[in-house]
Specification:
Two copies of one chain form a homodimer. The first copy, chain A, has 421 residues and is an alpha/beta fold. The first copy, chain A, is 37% helix and 17% strand. Chain A starts with 10 loop residues before the first strand and ends with a strand. At the A-B interface, helix 3, strand 3, helix 4, strand 8 and helix 11 of A face helix 3, strand 3, helix 4, strand 8 and helix 11 of B.
Chain lengths: 421, 421
Amino acid sequence: MARKRKLARGVAVVGGGLTKLGLFKDRNCKDFFAEAYTEMVNSVDKGIDPKDIDAVYVGNFTNDFFVKQSHWAPIIADLLGNVPKPVTRTEGACASSALAFREGVLAIASGMYDIVLVGGFEQMSKCSTEEVAEGLAMAASPYEVAAGFTFPGVFGTMATAYFAKYGATREALFNVTIKSHNNAPLNPKAQFPMTVRDFMNARIERSKKKAEPVPAWKDEKAYLADPAANPPVAWPMHLFDCCPISDGAACMLLVAEDMARNFTDVPIHVAGLGQGSGYSLHAKKDLTSYEATRAAGNAAYEMSGLTPNDIQFSEVHDCFSIAELVTMEDLGFVKPGQAHRAVADGMTRLDGPRPINTSGGLKSKGHPVGATGVAQLYEVWTQLRGQAGNRQVPNPNLRIGAAHNLGGTGGTCTFTILERR
Amino acid sequence: MARKRKLARGVAVVGGGLTKLGLFKDRNCKDFFAEAYTEMVNSVDKGIDPKDIDAVYVGNFTNDFFVKQSHWAPIIADLLGNVPKPVTRTEGACASSALAFREGVLAIASGMYDIVLVGGFEQMSKCSTEEVAEGLAMAASPYEVAAGFTFPGVFGTMATAYFAKYGATREALFNVTIKSHNNAPLNPKAQFPMTVRDFMNARIERSKKKAEPVPAWKDEKAYLADPAANPPVAWPMHLFDCCPISDGAACMLLVAEDMARNFTDVPIHVAGLGQGSGYSLHAKKDLTSYEATRAAGNAAYEMSGLTPNDIQFSEVHDCFSIAELVTMEDLGFVKPGQAHRAVADGMTRLDGPRPINTSGGLKSKGHPVGATGVAQLYEVWTQLRGQAGNRQVPNPNLRIGAAHNLGGTGGTCTFTILERR
């Protein structure tokens, strides 16, 4: 089955919207989606009449569990004034809305529709932290949960395997965290618009105010190495290795390529679409790689005719810091075992040769699970249009970016390449 | 937006499988899906190498709630030996797997894939009846539940509106139930392979054995009219108006039309695909019609170039008996207000001019919600291939059938027309 995947009709992104991410107990998913949708409508350079939207795809992980309401498709249809047009929900745990994006692309490519809205949303703040952990555990494989694993435990296991195999240490994780947090203050949507140094200084100020002994951390790495500042969750995953619980929504407007210029002079084209599935931890041949990511990467590269070296920048699913390192290797950005060195050398910094998570990543921007896939693509789209403000990648020839979205403990993965032509 | 919807590439069904439906507490969704999948593999006339399946779409309503496990895509991928190929879950309440079917069709039509497995599954028997009611309530609109409505309550309200508007009585519902139950004993997969007369006779036998007074019902209608035999749930919905709680799975193999003859000499083609969304009860203009069904019907008729009169037989979403009547009208099989007369006249009987629910329908065959959409299409496919055994529609020129799948209280609807060419 080595047939080259080619869409019957090209698809372009012509609009996007993303809420501010954070914890908003007094609001709900309809509020979030309306906020993202309103930004999307205003973002379309030449305007969009919402009546022209043919269909909607939305990703959500488990509102069934988090807010005790399922079947959100008609709720979204009603919210947007879209009844009786088709609305479809996709679910792939934390990759739920990247699947919605993908189905929207395929629906246009199939000839069925011309203009499709895709998006995602999640509200995690209505539950207690314990309930969120219980809900998220349903995204893991049933074998993992039965064996006593939590999400930080699964990723911690991958990290120890990575350390053992490649001689890396926790410093490799610190570098990922410091780098991503450096981008967050430049992103007005970020849940934690603070660098690690900001956190450190805030902690010092607090100690001073309380007339406690003031810790003397010489730099951010010393701060992250101090368990009093960065306590362990599931070794070697400490607090600053783990993304937060978040609320939010994101959406994007997709149109057939042949009509994209009716909406904007700067359409961003869908160049590659990849999706893969993966094994439960116990069945993996290699704890330092995701077969789902490799499959998604290969499919997207094959479809686009591009190679890993063509990807100028990317958003990568850093639910835990180790995931960013493993993903860089699985996607071929660097050779296996080299990611920790590449990050230390500054390759993935905003001003480095291959920036990763310019948005701040899941760690600093936030991770409303059902919204994340489209939120990542929103960042890539924004960067490719040169509209990322203070966090704009400083490359005047920015043309190709990609987003990698991982569901569960690696059970579902998407890799989507966008291109400015 | 009056553009005619046309797929860039045609799609055909070349295989199918359906479990026996019922309550199977000692088994699970993996067991069910494996059973349906095995039948599907064996059903492909010229054989299928499972390795050639490019992607999988599965519908499920709320395993999050019913069995406390979400993110079933990688579980299914692993079950089928399909890792790392893409598997995507769709959710549209009771229309979840019709959405999976639809996305499978679009994925092939888009040029992305050639061979796609679609299916659905649900296990409802692990919960108490109260928990199932709570889970299903999450498929209703949040306004309906907040107003105190249950599912039988919503459909009961539609029935009273229908009665008031068209002068029908509960006898119209009896006719639907008796007709569907007449087909069930002819379907080896049915959860209740019994006619209403069988239920009546069993009740008489039980009374005799217990030496109780033996009820003297003159016929099935008298039996259904007796609240001792058919107690009210939410008037005018009585027990025999409501489909059961069920477990089960269904799947079908879709391939690009241009390669269908490699798999069978009798491919069944996807002629029309329609999907719509609908309002919550309080916002409906008319309680005797579903805007989602009308939109889905119109879209499928437009795409196929067919009219309601071309649909020789159909599976219709009879979660409650009244739904079958309203749907017949919304799909244009009869004029508004005429369905109750048409059913009384025998139009929808197995040997009538336009058979409906030859499988026994949700009422008698069973309704494992996430499996139902594909289970309905499986029946249509089986009939069009002339393989429905004792329940085969007695028409030697059977060529066009359709399946109507409704999610929630009408929030999502699909209408899919299959054709033997």
